Amino acid sequence: MTKAGTKVAIISDSASDISPELGKELGVVIVPIIVSFEQESFKVGEEISMDEFWRRLTAPGAAFPKTAAPSSAAFTAAYDRAFSEGAAEVISIHVASKLSATYRSAEMAASSHPQAKNIHLVDTATASAAQGLLVKRAQRGAAAGKSAAEILADLQSAIPRTHVIFFLDTLDYLKAGGRISPARAAIGGLLSVKPIIDIVDGEVVTLDRPRTASKAKERFMELVGASPIEELTMLHSEAPDIEAFRTELCTRFPAIAALKPGIVRAGAAIGPHTGPKGLGVALIRS
């Protein structure tokens, strides 16, 4: 849906952890990715709620979920709707192509669309709330009347400065998803390792491996505060202490407090890999 007076429509996917409801409020169309628990498949944000996703993921003995990209037809429908509602151009902003086939699905739809020359794809090279920050940034530009070229230039400048800095409570889910070996997970568990991760150029990288939660939190603070920040939101995966964590971060860094960071709950894009009780931020450096 394009807001009144907006000639550039912004479209994304639910790996951004922007709910369909928030998407409507912002004027952004969110195409749902698919999550499957054994034989059951759901459109994220439409057919399965965040509460139900986490209930299923953390149920004792639960099978590890699989995620799949939306169909190219789903993107074609989104592009059709945007143009029918008056958009002159579409900017389609997606989860890292190295992490998901979503970008490829959008690319297939865009390349065969009658308005192909007016559809611009963006690989954010990231996911979750970091992708969400870029989507919201693009929508602000569109609402302010910026051209597609101006919005795209701004995004290309912001993407290399965009990060997800996150520390995990457990290695079990990285092991279940095949991101680390069982042996490495076992050793990490014995040492109480709390890895701090980021998504760099579309790949999950480990920034550090502190051995306790308190050391992980201190190292996290150092990494976040390493250089000035333009935008930031808190990010968590079912962490009950997220409010206290936000207060602690804002107390330590008044410049972050001035940004009035919101809180985003991680969903199907990274939740299966982080597991519960993970804490972090999505940010764009200055």
Tell me what the structure shows.
The chain has twelve helices and 13 strands. It has 286 residues and is α/β, with parallel strands linked by helices. The chain has two domains: 150 residues, Rossmann fold; 125 residues, Hypothetical Protein Tm841, Chain: A,domain 3 (2-Layer Sandwich). The strands form three sheets. The chain has a six-stranded mixed beta sheet with strand order 10-9-8-13-11-12, with helices on both faces. It has a four-stranded parallel beta sheet with strand order 2-1-6-7, with helices on both faces. Helix 3 crosses helix 4 and helix 5 packs antiparallel against helix 6. The chain is globular, with a radius of gyration of 19 Å. The chain starts with 7 loop residues before the first strand and ends with a strand. The relative contact order is 0.15. The N terminus is likely disordered.
